[in-house]
Amino acid sequence: MNHEIFYDEDANAVMLRVKGKLTEADIIEMSADNERYKENYSFILDLRQATAMLDKKTRHRLKLETQGNPPSKTAIIVTNPGVRAVVNLIMKFSGKMDDTMFFENEDDALAWLEVEVKNEA
Question: How far apart are alpha carbons 6 and 80 in whole angstroms?
Answer without folding.
Answer: 23
